[in-house]
Each structure stands twice: as structure tokens, then as C-alpha cells.
Amino acid sequence: xxxxxxxxxxxxxxALVLASLGWAALAQAAPPPRSLAEFESHVQNAPxxxxxxxxxxxxxxxxxxxxxxxxxxxxxxxxxxxxxEQMDTEAMRTYERVDLRAGLKYPLxxxxxxxxxxxxxxxxxxxxxxxxxxxxxxxxxxALRLHYINxxxxxxxxxxxxxxxxxxxxxxxxxxxxTAAGHxxxxxxxxxxxxxxxxxxHLAQTQTLQQRALGVLALMTGETVPAFQAVFPxxxxxxxxxxxxxxxxxxxxxxxxxxxxxxxxxxxxxxxAQKSQVNGQVALYSNLNAETDAPEPGYGVGVDLSxxxxxxxxKAGSARRQAAQAALEQSRQELAIVQARxxxxxxxxxxxxxxxxxxxVFGMQRLSAAREQLRxxxxxxxxxxxxxxxxxxxxxxxxxxxxxxxxxxxxQRLQAQARLLSLAPSEAWAAAVPADPxxxxxTVYVWHSAELLExxxxxxxxxADLRRRRVERLLISFDAEQIKxxxxxxxxxxxxxxxxxxxxxxxxxxxxLGEPLWILEAHRPRLLALIRDLSDLPFTAxxxxxxxxxxxxxxxxxxxxxxxxxxxxxxxKSQTKLPVGLSAHPRYLDPQRxxxxxxxxxxxxxxxxxxxxxxxxxxxxxxxxxxxxxKAHPGLRFSIAQSLEPVLGAAESHAGQTCDxxxxxxxxxxxxxxxxxxxxxxxxxxxxxEGLCP
Length: 694
Hints:
By secondary structure, the chain is of the alpha/beta class. The protein folds into 2 domains: 1-70 and 115-275 and 329-435, Outer membrane efflux proteins (OEP) (Up-down Bundle), CATH 1.20.1600; 442-476 and 505-692, Alpha-Beta Barrel (TIM Barrel). Helix content is 59%, strand content 15%. It has an 8-stranded parallel barrel with strand order 7-8-9-10-11-12-13-14, surrounded by 4 helices. The protein has a 4-stranded antiparallel β-sheet with strand order 2-3-5-6. Helix 10 (313-383) runs antiparallel to helix 11 (388-423). The chain starts with a helix and ends with a helix.
């Protein structure tokens, strides 16, 4: 009896430490590990991919051939013969002649269109093969991932089975002793032991699945793959948003791209079908002939022009156009079918993924419950001999099934993930997901542009500073010394380089002209001459900061200067093709003025933008000033100038604020003005902005 008790305890203790000791023992004997990423790096060697590459190379070769055979062609020929002809009524002439002929010929009209059609068809075939190569790459990668997942799952199931089977011998001995002692019926003993037979059958099935997975992995990578230790299959995060997934499929799936290209190619073929049906060619040639009785050979040059067309050419042309239109419509319908099928596949894959996640959660909970029941049964069987061991055996089998089902749940979840990634790889759907809207950018007045030129000695640093401060547009002014210096080729070239570089980097740079006296007719020629002189510099627009209020001592006041300002704007526009903008005090555009404000007049002149000089720091007050103006002139574009100058008071300037506080105020100002004709905010000026947002 003591021996029976010891064996019983060994079985119980073996089951309790099964998870901790068994896994470690198996891991020590396992072959070297290989990750999924390692196999993915060799998927380009898959036969389907290599076959697709070969097909693409063949189609590209045929395209090169079609292009090389088109256009001008060389022709030539030679002939020899004996001839007899009558010289006069009594004499005959017999002679031999050799003819040589060579030249160039070129297709015309319909013949040229047929050549273009041939090249287009070969080009379409090459594009189709390129998409087939991309599709083969996706399909091969999916197959590799699915079979790696199967291999990993078979490995996990095999370890579970081997751990379960380790206690078959001691359990058989204990059950045999209990049967001999009359505590267990023979049928029950065999029933309990049948669990081990069931697990051995599972083990054989997993080994077969593992060998098949090894064969497919070898095929997909083009190399011999010995048995290895699989690690958990890590893959990129799939797209789980239905709209983003559908957009990625429509924009990037090779089947859609192939059909879209086929539709575009068929559209071009339909255009060719509308053209002339008359075949023709022109030939330029020269010939040389020698006769036996001639003292020297003869030669000649000539031009041949030939054409042909079907007798029923109108019917032939109509049939050709009808066939091309039918093929075009077929391509449209095929594109719709492909998109519908792929979108249905995408929805199904997404549903399968979500279902698999729920199954995975259920599987984890079920395994946790099975393990808790096993723990309880093992504790009870250790203290209450009898049928406790048989109940523990049932619980162990339940735990085994729960563990196997959990592995299957992982397989479903991982394979659903692989299918989603095949439909929309991470790089495709990440690009399809709408990005967060960019933060609003600023325009800045740059009055001290000489400093900007000096800082351009390190263009990367300058650009980084501008972008970090969200500057998208510069209004650059030249002082009198700079205008003189621009007459020197070297200095002018430096500025041209700066402006061109900033333009290529996506920054808009406008010429800022800010001398108020240029409003007056007597000084206006100087402004127009300056615009003509600087017209070769690559500015994107001209901005006039010509404020009548800054002309002190004018006899009739600033209001009387508006006609002259409008005349100045009109003449500036006549001197340049660039857009012209204007800075103006908001009171001149107030729609409540008795004259209706100057907005309609500026719009009639074609002013591209009006910057409202609203030096009010409170966003609500500034919006109250600008709002009625923007609403009254929906066809005129406006920006709002805000001051950062420390010489102004706190109610007029943002000077002294932190950078975050400034951005918060300006964001609120934009939010209070939803009108579509608001371009943005202009900061006065760049120098103060740098100091406030270092």
C-alpha cells in the first residue's frame, strides 16, 4: 500500500510541476530559434516571385522591341536579270542588268497610329506584369506567414502533447493497481488511458502539419529549411479602421492598380481608334543599276508616297471605334468588380480579426479556469485518496484541450492579422489614414532682411528655425543701402540664390515695399522703376505696405490719399504679372462707412490679398473688428496682422507673452473667424517673433 501511495503522490507532484519543469526540459533540447522576420527577408526567392520577375523582364524586352521597330525603317533590295528589248524596227538589244536599291520609310496616318497602338499594348502588358510581380510578392509573403504560424502552432501543440504523455506510464501503473485492488473497473481504466491515445493522435497530426509547413517555407525562401525552433510570430500592426482599410485597398492593392492602369491604357486605345483609318507611308530611296553594255552605272533618288484604306472605310472605322468603346466599358466594369471583391475581402478579414480577438480572450479565460480546476482536483486527490486521481486526470485532459484551443485561437488571430496586412501593408494604410491637421502657420514681416541674408550662410539652420516657428511666408523688405547694393551682380546673385532655395523648400517669399511716399503721384515713378528693376528676382508676389496715415502733414488728411493709393495699386499691377497684396488699416474697409468702404474697389482692381492691420491683442476684440469686413467681402482674401512690438501697449501688442500664450491667443483668434476668405495671421515682425519664441 505504501508503494501505491508513493506512485500516486509522484503522479500528483508531476502534474503540479508540469508547466515549470517540462517546458524548461524541452527548451534545452530544442533546435536553434528562427524568427518570422528572418524568413520574410528571403521571400523574394519564392518561385511565384521569380516567375513574375521573369515575366516582367520578358514584357519589358518586348516593349523595347516594339519601340525600336517603330518610326523610321531602313529598306533595301537587289536584283539581277537578262533583258531583251527592240532598239528599232530591225535591231534587238540583249543585255544583263544589276539593280541595287536602299532607303528610309516612315509610317503615316493610320499606319503610325497602328504602331502607337502596338507600343501602347506592350507598355500596358509591362505595367500589368509589374503589378503581377507586386501581387506575387504579397501572396508569397502571406503564404510564408501563414505557414510559419502553422509551424509555430504545431510546435506549441507538440510540446503540450509531449508534456501530457510524460505521465502515461506512471498513471497506467497507478490505475492498474487500483483496478487490481477492486477500486476501479477495467472499463474505466481503459477510458482514462484512452486520453493518452487521443493525445498521441494529436501529436501525429501536428507533426504532419509541421512537416508540411517546413516544405512550404523551403519553397517560399528557395533554400533548405531544417527543423527549427519557431518564436512567436511578430508582425506589423494591421489597419483596424474600416474606412482607412478600404481607402488603403483602393489606393494600393496591386489588383486595383493593375485594373486602373488597364482602364487608363484602354482609354488611350479608344482615343487612337478615333483617328484616321487610312494607312500610309513615305519612302526616301536611292538606286544604282549597272548594265553590261553601258559605259558606267546609272543612279537615281526618289520619294514614294503610298496609302491604302478599306473600300468600306466608314464602316470599318465605326466598327473599330465601337469595339474600342466596348473594351473601355469592360475595363470600367472589371475595375468595379475588382474593387468590390477586395473591399468585401477586407471587411471579411476585419470581421475575422475581431472575432479571433474575442475567441482569444475566451480561450485565455477557459484555460485559466481549467488550470484552477486542475489545481483544486490535484489538491483534493492528494488528501482524499479514492476516485480523486481519476477526477484529476479528467481535469488534466480538460486543461490540455483548453491549451490546444488557445493555440488555435492564436492561430486564427495571427492569420487574420496576416491577411489584413496582405490586403493593406502597414506602409499603405498608414499613408491612407488621414494625418492630424497641420498646425496653422504664420506670415512674418521681415524689415531687416540683411540679417536674413547673413544667416543664409547656414541654410539648414535657417530653414529649421523658420519651420520650428511655423513660418510659411516671408514679406521681405530692402532698405536704401540694399537697393543700391543690388546693382552689384554678386550681391544680386546671392539674393537670387536665397530666394530660389527658400522657394524650393516650400516657403513663399514676397517683395515687401513699404515707403508711404510712393502713394503720391510725384514719387510713384520711383516705385514702378524699382519693381521693374527687381523683376528678375524669384519673388512669389509683391506686397505694398503703403499706409496713408504715415504721410504726415498732408493738407487734406489720409482719407484724401485713398484715390492716389488706388492709382498706385493700379499702376503696380500694370508693371508686374505677380499677385499684388496690400496692407491697410481696417477702418478703410469697414462696410459701415458711408461710402461702403474701399473693399469693393480693391476687389475690382484684382488685389490678391489685404492684410488688415489690427493691432489689438485681445482675440475677441480683434475678431469683432475683422469679422464684419470678411463677411462683407467674401470674394476678397484677407489676413490679420498682429503686433509683437514692445513699443506698443499691452492692449495693442503681444510683446511680453510666452510663446505658448501667443500661440493660444492666435489659435483662438482663428477659431473666432471661420470665414473661408481668411488666409491667416501675419506677425509684425520676424525679429520680435524670434525673441518671443526662441
